[in-house]
Design goal:
This protein is α/β, with parallel strands linked by helices and about 350 residues long. It is about 45% helix and about 15% strand. It contains 14 helices and twelve strands. A six-stranded parallel β-sheet has the order 2-1-3-4-5-11, with helices on both faces. A six-stranded mixed β-sheet has the order 7-6-8-9-10-12, with helices on both faces. Keywords: DNA-binding, Transcription, Transcription regulation. GO terms for molecular function: DNA-binding transcription factor activity; transcription cis-regulatory region binding. This is LacI family DNA-binding transcriptional regulator.
Length: about 350
């Protein structure tokens, strides 16, 4: 294994008076090396200017290294399908270093399914984990265990405010909610807004858009304190039930301003289309095909978009950089852009 200046690991071992294996253990921070030998090796490395070829070392090693992406199950056309494309890109890059990338999936509406997925992830003994914190309390337990085992973890899409994560790739969640409120109201007073939420939030088990919703509510309270904010809970899996809830919403608490903070604003658009309601101003998130169709048809006025594929790929790359190439990240929180799409520019979004 040669460095860029042709100084080899054998040269370092001879100059330090230790074995090649001792130098290797110091370089990769593994195994037991006395403090005296470690100091001697590091001094020789510095003096000779040795630069190990980490790429070749990883490929030569027979050790299996894995990165696990813990993501929800999904159907074609849903938000996590685009994330999966980013994982595929990250997998291709990681393979150059002899690293495998695997998916472990779970039902995002079932906490036990998430717990089982966490257990399966730990069984893989990965060097790193990429995840979105769907169930807050269970996620905190899981990442605590990852930290205790020295396993790096990176948040995508949203993050928890705790100290152990290696990096985050996604929108600034609070600011995206604040921005959403400004787009929905167009900066003018409105009497009321209806926040459409997935029923799982009501049960208190999973609320991944909490921070985004907090930013939205703060904007409304700061700018239009007289505006009434209502929460309406729907079942995304039951169209009949969903229509009953939205019918009742329009009968009991009508509002011309509707918002949804996850990627499923198309569920609201489906109702508006069926009921031929065009008087509402509707804002949602993410570039799903159904969301874009609703945008083009005028049932949604704006989408706040993000490249979730790029987030996933970058998350995998960050683990490779730190865990395997022993490099430092330039940033911990990598906030991606918040792109505002309407019916006139959505077809040009790349």
């Amino acid at each position: 294994m040669e460095g860029d200046n042709k100084i080899t690991i054998n040269d370092v071992a001879r100059a330090a008076g230790v074995s090649k294996g001792t130098v290797d253990r110091v370089l990769h921070n593994r195994g037991e090396v006395s403090a005296r030998s470690k100091a001697r090796v590091l001094e020789v490395i510095e003096r000779l200017g040795f630069k190990p070829n980490v790429y070749a070392s990883l490929l030569a090693s027979r050790k299996v290294r894995r990165i696990v992406c813990l993501i929800p199950e999904y159907h074609p056309g849903e938000f996590w399908e685009l994330t999966e494309k980013g994982i595929a890109a990250g997998k291709e890059n990681a393979a150059k270093y002899g690293v495998t990338v695997e998916d472990v999936r779970y039902d995002q509406y079932d906490m036990e399914s998430f717990q089982n997925a966490c257990a399966r992830t730990l069984e893989e003994d990965p060097v790193g984990v990429v995840l979105a914190p769907m169930f807050r309390n269970e996620t905190l337990k899981f990442v605590k265990e990852l930290s205790s085992r020295g396993i790096y973890y990176v948040y995508i899409d949203s993050k928890l405010e705790e100290d152990g994560y290696l990096a985050y790739f996604g929108m600034p969640m609070y600011q995206s909610g604040y921005l959403c409120a400004d787009i929905l109201t167009m900066g003018t007073p409105v009497p009321s807004v209806n926040i459409i939420r997935v029923a799982r939030d009501k049960k208190g088990l999973s609320d991944p858009t909490l921070t985004r919703r907090t930013g939205f509510v703060d904007y409304i309270n700061e700018h239009f304190p007289d505006c009434e904010i209502r929460n309406v809970f729907i079942d995304p899996k039951d169209r009949g039930s969903r229509f009953e809830v939205l019918d009742r919403m329009f009968d009991e608490s009508p509002s011309e301003h509707l918002v949804m903070f996850n990627s499923r604003i198309h569920l609201v658009a489906d109702y508006l289309r069926e009921r031929n309601v065009r008087s509402c101003r509707v804002v949602g998130f993410d570039v799903l095909g159904k969301n874009l169709a609703a945008l083009r048809d005028g049932y949604v006025q704006a989408l706040i978009a993000q490249h979730s594929d790029q987030q996933a790929s970058a998350a995998i790359d960050s683990i490779v950089e730190v865990a395997l190439l022993h490099r430092s990240l330039t940033k911990r929180d990598n906030f991606t852009q918040m792109d505002i799409l309407n019916r006139y520019n959505c077809d040009y979004y790349l």
